[in-house]
Design brief:
There is one protein chain. Helices cover 46% and strands 14% of the residues. It contains eleven helices and eight strands. Strands 1-2-3-4-5-6-7-8 form an eight-stranded parallel beta barrel, surrounded by six helices. Helix 5 runs parallel beside helix 6 and helix 10 crosses helix 11.
Length: 268
Amino acid sequence: MTRYSYLILQSLDRMGGADEIRRTLDLVKGFGYDGVELNLTPAAVDWLPRLEGWLADCGLALPSCCTGEAYSEGLCFSSPDPAVRQNAVQRLVDYFDAVRPFGAILVSGLMQGTLGDEPDPDLAHGRIVDCLQQVAAAAETRDAVLVVEPVNHLQVGFHNTVAEVRQLVREIGSPAVRPMVDTVHLNIEERSLTGPVLECGAELRHVHVCESNGGLFGTGHVDFAALLNALDEIDYRHWASVKVYRRAALREAAQTSIDHLRRCRDMA
């Protein structure tokens, strides 16, 4: 059975302190989620030792963490600068160590970069493979997992479709690197919402559940019932993280999203 976590978009270091973080965790748990997904920054990592106890207090898990903020700092796998690439690799290795007490996986997509970072897709691809192979080697020694997110072409220059990410994962050749899907990117890049999920099958390691417009569930055209059916068909037993990033505050987004998914589950 798929378990739901809620993606808290604001990193811990920007949430206004311990009281606000704890209120947010209690709120998410109260709506019926089993976990939270966090956006990592170096400053947010400093909060993780305290977070461990808070999560235990309210009965939530930390199954996954996003790493895309690192790209806004200039860390990029396709960069022509070897130092930038090495720093990008090291950032993920450091994050593996930071989230190890939680058993969380890392989500990576934006750090691949854009055609503005490297206009030659072949050069970019080779650099991305090399970087992710280094990350994979570190992950294997830590019994950790990195999932590669297929991000749409408006945000990332490479490996935008699920098929392209699956091929990338095969080239990396490590059990520590797996594909994931995000419904907002599926909506942009794919001809089918469910086809790529079914094609992934047992390879699929993480899911972001998001409306086509990034807003409240039901205000776009993602067929969540069909998605849940597809996840059942492949016997998906990992986490699905709810993501709402437009036109809604956390309280409304968290509550209405899980309510919508429950109605879809009843229809499935």
